[in-house]
Structures are given as structure tokens and as C-alpha cells.
Protein 1
Amino acid sequence: MNIFRLVKRTFTLAAIIASATTVSFAQCAMCKANIAGAENAADVSRTINLGVLVLLVPTLAIIGGVARLIFKYRHLSGNSYVNFRPSDTQRNSE
């Protein structure tokens, strides 16, 4: 693996982890009302934020898997808007 690629991936992973650990104020109105009415608001807030992250992971995995399949099999359809390079038979016929 290229050292530049490794450094880039390391910094990207560090940025993702750092952004996931910061306090977020972007909660919906119901979640905010639930936290405001709780006796231990810090614990409830942390639990709700963790729950949101837990629900986010499978969703992103599914979207990433579909995107990977699309990019992997994008040249199999034979449509002109997908294949930008002409095939050998098309070049020979011209």
C-alpha cells in the first residue's frame, strides 16, 4: 500500500472518530424534550446519541454495499451511457 494512501486513510479515520465523539446539539424535538425532562440528562443524552450511531451503522453499510455493487457491475449493461470507451468490435467496425 502506498504510504500517502495510508496516511490519508489514517487521517480520515481519525476525523470520523473525532467527529463521532463530540457533543451534538442536533437532536429532534422529541429527543430534546425527553432529555430536558430527565433527572440525569447527561446519561440520557449519551444513551440517545449512542442509539443514533448504532442505527446509523447498518444503514451506511447497506448504502455502501449497494454503491459498491453498482460501481463493480456498471460496465455489464452494455448501454452507451455507461460504457464511455468503445469496445474492440466497435473500433474495428469504424
Protein 2
Amino acid sequence: MTIGLPQMIADYFTADRQKSGDAVAACFTADATILDEGHTYIGRDAIRQWKTDSSSKYSYSVEPFSISTEGDRTVVVSHLVGDFPGSPVDLRYQFVVDGNKIAGLEITL
């Protein structure tokens, strides 16, 4: 199922599919924060490294299938399938947007 995503969030998922740390980092503000698997990554350099590391460690595909708003967050639920422990899984991507960039992202079950 295809859902309509705000452009900066669509750009994030496109960059993620490319497995490019540089492309993912470019979607974020300079001081953005990501919370994923109990770790916090602050700033584009840390975000670039986070994506580079996760992309080299696992092969996966992600398919967003639901979008909603919770307070100041845009929540996208996506189906992930890959060679990581617990696959397949549906994850909640909670985005905080600042203009045309992502200022925050929390990824949870």
C-alpha cells in the first residue's frame, strides 16, 4: 500500500532504501537527534555513522503503511523485513519536523 508522506519524510525513506549514510544525514537539521535501539545520535555526523553502521550490519527492506499525527510528531508505521534479529517487525518512526528538514526521529516497536 502506498501512503502520502510529507516530502522530507519521503526523502528519508528513499535515502534509507539507498543505504546511504550521507543521503540519510542530509534529511536532518544540523543538530537533529535520533533515538534508536536505546542509543541517541546527535548531529549529522552521528546520524551518518548510525546509518552507515546499520546498513553494513543488516540487509532489510522497509515499507511505510500508516501515518498519523501525535502532538508535534508525525508517526509513520513501517513494516521491516531483513536479516536482523526479530524480523519481520512493524516499527513506529516518530518524526519531529523543522521546516523542510527532520529535527528528531525516534524509532520504537
